[in-house]
Fold these 3 entries.
Entry 1:
Amino acid sequence: MTHAQHGATDPASVLCDPGRARVLGRIGLGAETDSRCDDLAAWVTEALDVPVALVSLVREDEQVFPGMTGLPEPWAAKRATPLSHSFCQHVVITAAPLVVTDARDDPLVRDNLAIPDLGVVAYAGMPLTDTDGTVLGSLCAIDTRPRHWTDAELGILERIAAAASAELRLRLARYDTDRELDRRDAVEAAHLRALDRSHILLTAARAFGDATTVADALTRLAELLDAEFTPTLLLPVLVEGDRLHRLGDAGDPHPARFARHDATPAATAIREGRLVHHPDRASFETRYSAAVIETFRRLDLQTCVAVPLLDAGGPCGAVVLAWDRPDAVEPGDLLTLASVAGYAGQAIGRAGLLEHRIAVAHALQNAMLSPLPQVDDLQMARRYSPADARENVGGDWYDAAPLIDHPDGPGRRRLMVSVGDIVGHTLDAATHMGQIRSMLRQAAWDHLGEPPSVALRAVDDLNRGLGLGAAGSAVVGYLEEPSPGRWSLTWTNAGHPPPVLLAPDGTVELLDEHDTLFGFAALAELPRTDHTRAVPPGATLFLYTDGLVEHGGGSIDEGIADLLALLRRHHGLPVRDLVDTVVDVLAPEVPDDVVAFAVRFPVRTDSGA
């Protein structure tokens, strides 16, 4: 066969035709095995004695093989090739058969990649068409060596192609029928939904919109269903791991917790993710165990509906309703029940996630913000208020950790104290806070005898090296008792609000020496310095985070001035009361984490007086 006619038509206008693409979509065939199409391909290989036969549907950018025999790997597994490997596209473009004796010498296809990659040498392809004559693909016979196709062989191939086209047309007819049935069902469902049930959905949307706990969502669901459907029995069931938990009393002697595979309406609805409806007792008794049937009879129930509660991850539970009369619900009721259960499932899923986050946050906070240590003669108190009171955790921290005796001699008590603020107010910030706080403890122990700036530098280096991404401000101080009753403070400040040293007479000293923030690569090489003060007997070291002094529209300097004034006025309070008073006055309700941490030193001299 000559190929003069091939190429006369614009390929793109044919392959990319929207109408043709719609027909291909309606057929529903693609790069997956179809048994009928595979049978047609096998028929070709047997009738023509060829190694490869394809039922090929040509799309705008690829060809797919719902029917295939003999194709080499990896193409056999993919059941598709790009058009660079397609002879069949020429059948579609020209709407005519394509017959090639030796593709390597044929000017139309000799550059096609199917020759080296698929071993195509001889090719014969017949158009596959719909009832309107649109060419959708090709039924082709392929040989791996040159071959002169006889008229008889081409006639056989043409007859098989006619059978393949008939199969495609039958699929299109089924699609049109199914679509018409779907359209009819949709109209019917729309009428049923309109039967006095729209207000239930509106009520459900309002009822579940602000539910914050699983129990709250379940209570609202029960109230709504009781009011609108007046069931004889209503039982929620929740998924708990690999088991189900029935809430409420069904008069069932069996345990409230049971397996997903149990033969019950709730388990069936959850397992299969669908509404289960039994309009009468006879229907019910064909499905379930003797024990479940006995309970149904004892409660004199007739109709049963079990609706899955679906959240984003799948079924989170089900709600079972039963009535003491048969046919208690209509099709419109079933649709409404499914919709209400959908609202409830989403609310339960959100509430469960929130409850889990809160539980995790509480556990995280308790693990990270441990109790203050007991140190003879030192009185310590702290107050922590997170920005997000629901999760009760934030990015600020306080800490006090005893260190071992100084390496140059025993008998010296040493304590590391720190406060800090990780950038952000999310659970991620809290996680970073816990890591940095723990790393500071470790660094202090690893660098005993060295000043706090060394520990902070080590933490900053490790933070960058591990790519943790934590950044913020901190004060790290070492309290030492070089002689009984005498304490000193050595500290380094990484961009944090300055500590306050409050003397017993109310005099305040702002320890305002500071360096740059930690966790920022651009600041990593800047020096960190240490500062030392002898602590007067009876003095109080007051540490805090910026949430205490930076809020309400004022500057941080104004906030610090308010703090100093408050400390002067209340310097005589016990340390616990002092911390509470400061937080209650300066930060009763602030949109930021707040830490206040105070250490009061003993009132005694070297002689112990």
Entry 2:
Amino acid sequence: MKNIVKKSSLALAIVAMLTSCDNFDEINTDPTAANADQVQVEYFINSSIIGAQMNPDVAERSFVLYWKTAGHQMLSTGISGGSYDDGWSTAYYNSSAGWLNSINTAIQVAEEKEAKDIVKPYSGNLKQVARIWRAYLMSELADNFGPIAIDAFQGKNPEFTDLKTVYYFLLAELKDASEKLDVSVSNISNPKLKNEDPAYGYDYVKWKKYANSMRLRLAMRLSEVDPAKAKSEFEAAASSSLLTDASDNFQVQEKAGWDDLTGVMSREWNAQIISVTLNNLYIGLGGVKSTDLLAPSFHASVKPADYIGLKFENHFTMKTNEPAAGYWLDGLPNAIDPRAYKAFNIPGDFTNSNFSGYPSWDNSAETTSANLFDASGAVVKTIEAKNTWNAFAVGNWGALGSRNGVRAFNGTMPRLSQAFRGSTSKRIFFASWETYFLLAEAAVKGWAVPMSGKDAYEAGIKANFDYWGVSSHLSAYLTSNDYNRAGTSVNWSHTTEPPTSHAMNYVDGYTNAAGVATILYPKNNLYKNGGVKNDLLTKIITQKFIAQTPWLPLEGWNDHRRLGLPFFENPAVELPLVNLPTLNSSNFMTNQVSFFPQRLKYTSGLKNSNVKGYEQAVGFLGGADDIFTPLWWAKH
């Protein structure tokens, strides 16, 4: 046993690019009190899965401030404006070391028991489960930072490895582990075993489906840079059993408190206001009327379909390619994706049982009235935000920001539902809808998959509508030809491109004079040079992005880095963003890869303590160790 712990700690220390073993002491407390024959593999698996759920300290920094920000799920400039915090990254690294160390030890313990013939009927399956989970953890680490070391798991000093090799290794691991899982094995000899698996209770049929769907995810990640490998791996996995039912979802129950099972979005000081990316995807998409989604008390606030709002060009930034920049919608959208009102609260909807009143120590969530000021501080306009629906670009608003009290109060904008903030739901790591959207994308690429692109696409939407409880609107939604603000519709058969612009009525917010505005559909230069907004792939990724909110922001970020989809607006540049120097007031109407974060920098611990390893990693990265160097599989 001593050997196992020693080798595991050495391996993970290098994989996680850390030099201290302090992080490994905690998980060794109980195992070191037992001999090798007594240590149980399932304890290490359980520790790793629960740990990766993230305690609030790590979750706030990685899941919320990095992933949800880079993945455009909420209003936050942060890394989207080029900023980076070594402490946040180190917190994630340290935790990742623990999760990987636990799962690596599980595999080593299993192998030692095999060698000694100390096995139970399910022992072989536990080893394969550990390998499957390890593949996920390694992919998460690599998708954040880039090149990592994979041979560390063999108990020797490892070499850092390029991402292509990392992904080939992970795909091979998932294939082999899935094939070796014996789904006929019963756990009847240990009825308590299920308690050591917070995701599936050691249901091996579900673990096999998860492994195969994970293989789809990782294979698709290579689609733009290594299409032959991506196709062969994807098609092989797609011919196996897949995670296609809600009961198969890989999810872990959260609980209140402050430990690894506390909700990843639970910290009160993160308002988690709706992003303008999501808002532009939601509004108009599917053609479902707000009056069909909301109680009659809201109906008077619903605006006409051809109305964009009040124009406040002296208080709301115009220096962004966000299509509704400069306007305040003084009511609710005429039509909106049915999931929007489920995921986010309408400002002032205090009787909603899922209204988020965070932070609880002030009334910012319940302050719906705010002022616009002039340069001297005098009030120009008072705005009442109750029963309105607005989202704004992140970035540097300069003087406009200091004069805009509306954007300063959390309660004036839609915020994430308390259903996801109170540590009472389940954190989803992989859901059935993702499998369907991956199959739909593969079908569009002409790969051999078990269902048509249309069927897979619509099945993905249905699975997510079921999750949100809005299935009564599914039929009308799927046949809608209405464009959202990004120029995309739902109907699979409707691929007509939107016009360059469309006319919308507005009211001057200062004079109350009515006018007609020419609103551009945004040009997404990152995808097909900006000329395509409504093809099949854009539809798929739009739906996938919406469906993954709020649980899988890392996957949303991954898709945008890989494809440039969905459309991400640029941060506002009323004043320069010092950490985003390529974006400026002369080019903000176009998109460039360099306008968006591509990765996290390696931690200072690696750079300062492991010079050789750091140099290897950066060498494989193929560019500077900064957040704008694209990963190998990302869109270039």
Entry 3:
Amino acid sequence: MTVSGVGVSPGIGHGPVYVLTVSVPEPPEGATYQGEADQEKARARAALERVAGDLEARGVRAGGEAKDVLAAQALMARDPGLAIGVDALIERGTAAARAVWESFGKYRDLLVAAGGYMGERAADLDDIRDRTIAVLTGHPLPGVPTVAAEPYVLVARDLAPADTVLLTKDVVAAFVTEEGGPTSHTAILARAMGVPAVVAARGATALRPGVRVLVDGGAGTVTVEPSEERVAEARRVSQARERALEGAAGPGRTADGHPVPLLANIGGPRDVKTAVDSGAEGVGLYRTEFLFLDRTKPPSHEEQRDAYRAVLEAFPHGKVVVRTLDAGADKPLAFLRSPTAEPNPALGQRGLRLFRAFPDVMNAQLQALADAAEGMADRLQVMAPMVSTVEEAAWFVHECATRGLASAGVMIEVPAAALRSKDLAGVVDFFSIGTNDLAQYAFAADRQVGALTQLQDPWQPALLDLVAAAVGDHGVPCGVCGEAAADPALACVLVGLGVATLSMSAPALPAVRAGLARHSLAQCRTAAAAARGQATAAGARNAARARLPALAELGL
């Protein structure tokens, strides 16, 4: 039996299943309190603060990226809007525990409706809610074993950061969740820990506690009760992969010397060290929206300038490609909203469209970028998200040029832009393909809906056709910054299609570097043609890998 999901942290994990179940019960509907409302409100606020303090303390103990993740969760516990909602319910006679449940439920619904990065914060909110209710009612929270006879596979509906930050590779062999996505905290922390992880694995919590499973964090599979031979083979492949990665160094290039700069996707200065340590030759996607999230007003000019400059200084010999604020849809901002309600935000005012609607925010970001690049302008490239037409592209290039930003490009995330890349090439300096959104719009399949994962498969031949159309023969360099570039086989195919640079999460860089180094440009082109000649994603993957023999030898 095999349970399938989405692999978000590569590697092989094997061990007994430990199923984490949330056991904090929902407070009774209609529950009331005795005494004064002010006293009940004080109880609720004290509980929220206790939870926030505990989360911060756990983050300090864990350190690294986990510290930042839990600090952000503590901010959610202290959110004034949530406290106001709890107070309002208590004023109407609702008991503190029930008020927390209902108030958090409303906010959770908003996050889930937003989807994407914000939707994947719902598990964090649930965790804060449950911890707060446990404090108010004296109910114990479920715990995660931090000591075990052998590493176990932690299985849950979803995992909150506080459940995992104090774990180590010696304790947990892999993470498997029924919910979540590539940007969930489960995925972020698993990659930081170097632990295999599979998310969106429906039915995983039905696994029998203690049953042994084999988790493949690259393929996204959970094999139940694998044979000893299967486990031994998986470990052999994993060891071969580790040896290949240890030997991968230097600039990205094919076996015959064709250069393919390998870049990192980052969210800010805190991601720089991991990118540098992984051998990134620059930054292919600086997601500036992470500076703006969880705020009631935009970051100051100085904060933006310093955050951009820190990254430019970290790559003295490489390019840094900055994506301007990509807000709206799955990344709603309190101070940057469409003036009218939208029935489908993903098809509404988002990306460049929303940027144009708020010129003050746009002007501030572009000016901060220009100031950050003083003395380093040759390293900075700026690109706009969600561009659909040549008019939009020309407008953005003009706005950049007026502020001295010499290199301006656009994201290819909309099929219209891919199909008319030759027109766009006449006005921009470079392209960068966002394969996640391009697949979402090409297949009319929300990238956050687990049931539609098959349509989000980057091996879909139609998506490869759109990549080929975007590359075209117009002469403008075209990179890929979607996570499709993190698959060593698909990276070779993308190079075969003519993609000039590949950008991905930093931990994926060594594997892609190793895969490219073992195949010639001709082999990459042959694999790309074979993949496009298939009718299904599985057929495309198999056809390409058959023409990239060294990948299997390397365990990639």
